[in-house]
Amino acid sequence: MGARILEGKQVADGVKRGLRERIAVLEARGVVPGLAVIMVGDDPASASYVNMKGKACQELGLRSRALRMPVDLPEDELLKLIDGLNHDPEINGILVQMPVPKHIDVGKVIAAIDPDKDVDAFHPINVGKMLIGSGDGFLPATPHGIQVLLAAYGIDVAGKHVVIIGRSNIVGKPLAAILMQKGKGADATVTVCHSRTRDLRAITTQADVLVCAVGKAGFVTADMVREGAVVVDVGSNRIEDPAAPRGYRFVGDVDFEAVREKASAITPVPKGVGPMTIAMLMYNTVLAAERALERQGGPKV
Ligand code: GUN
After folding, report:
1. Distance of alpha carbon 152 from the chain centroid
2. Three-class SS of residue 236?
3. Is the CB of 139 under 6 A from ligand 1?
C-alpha cells in the first residue's frame, strides 16, 4: 500500500492565504507587520533558510529586514542590535537564525529578545506559556506547523501514541509539549526518544505517529515503522548527487521510498514540513503585529 503524501507546500499555501486577509485588515489600520532576521556568520544552510523567510515576507507584503552579521560579531554587539529591534515600532518579530557561532551564548541572546516579538517562541517566557498551554504566547514554527499539517489532513492525534525521535529545543521538546496538551489537535500520548534511548526500534514500532528530527539522512528505516503509521520527516539533509542540477539535493531523515510502502501517510522532503515552518513563522509575525496594535489601544483585530 502506498502512503498518502502529506503535501506541506499546499497546506502552507492555505495558511498564507488565510494570513492575507488579516494582513489587509492591519494595513487598513496603517500597520505593515515587520520581521527582522539576524544571521551571524555565513553558514550556507542558514543563509538559504534566511532567504526563504525573506521571500515569504515579500510574497505576503510584510516588511522584512535581513541583518547579515560577520561570524566574529561580538556578543555584546548582537545584544545591542536586538535591543534596538526590541524598541523599533516597525518590527513586530525578531528572529536570530540558529545555530550562532560558539563564542555567543545562545541563552543570553534568546533572553534578550522581547517576548512579545519572539516569533520563534524560544524565549523562556514563551516556552513556559507553551508548556502551560496558556495560549497567549507564541508557538514555535516547526512543531506548530506539524500540528496544523496533521489537522489539515484530518489526522487526529487524540489518544494516539506519538513517538518523536530527537529532543531539540527547536523541534522535539516543544512538539511533545504541544501534542500532549488538552484540546483540539492534541491530547496525544507522547514518547520522546533520543541518542541515549535503548532499543529505539522497540519504541518506534509502537508509534501511531512517528516524527523524526535528528538531521541524519536515512535514519528511519522501514523496519522501525509500524504498518499503517503516519510518518513526519523533519529532516533536511544535503546530499551529493551528480545527477541533480546543482550536484546536490535535499533528503529527509526517513528512507522515504521504503517507508512509504508501510506508512499510511508520510511527509515528503522537500515540500513537507519545511514550507509549514515558514508559513507558521509568518503566522506568528502577523499575530505579533495584531497584538502590538491591541496593546496600543486599538480594537481587537
Ligand atoms: N535553525 C533551524 N530551525 C530554526 C528555527 O526555527 N528558528 C531559528 N531561529 N533558527 C533555526
Report:
1. 16
2. coil
3. no
Nearest by Cα to 82 from 95, 92, 97, 73 = 95
Q: What share of the chain is helix, strand, coil (3-state, %, to 5)?
A: 40, 15, 40
| Nearest protein Cα to ligand 1, atom 1 | 98
The Å distance, Cα 97 to ligand 1 centre, comes to 5
Residues of the chain short of pLDDT 50, as ranges, are: none
Query: Does 127 contact ligand 1 (Cβ within 6 A)?
Result: no
Q: List residues with catalytic annotation.
A: 53, 97, 120
Compute CA distances 18 → 15, 86, 210, 257, whole Å.
Answer: 5, 27, 28, 33
* Phi/psi at 101 (5° precision): -55, 155
Helix (H, G, I), strand (E, B) or coil at 280: helix
- Summarised one tens digit per residue, pLDDT across range 176-234 is 999 999 999 999 999 999 999 999 999 999 999 999 999 999 999 999 999 999 999 99
What the chain holds in terms of domains, given with CATH numbers, is: 29-115 (3.40.50.10860), 141-274 (3.40.50.720)
Residue 170 CA to ligand 1 center (angstroms) comes to 7
Predicted local confidence at residue 298, as pLDDT: 64
Ligand 1 contacts CB of residue 141 (under 6 A): yes
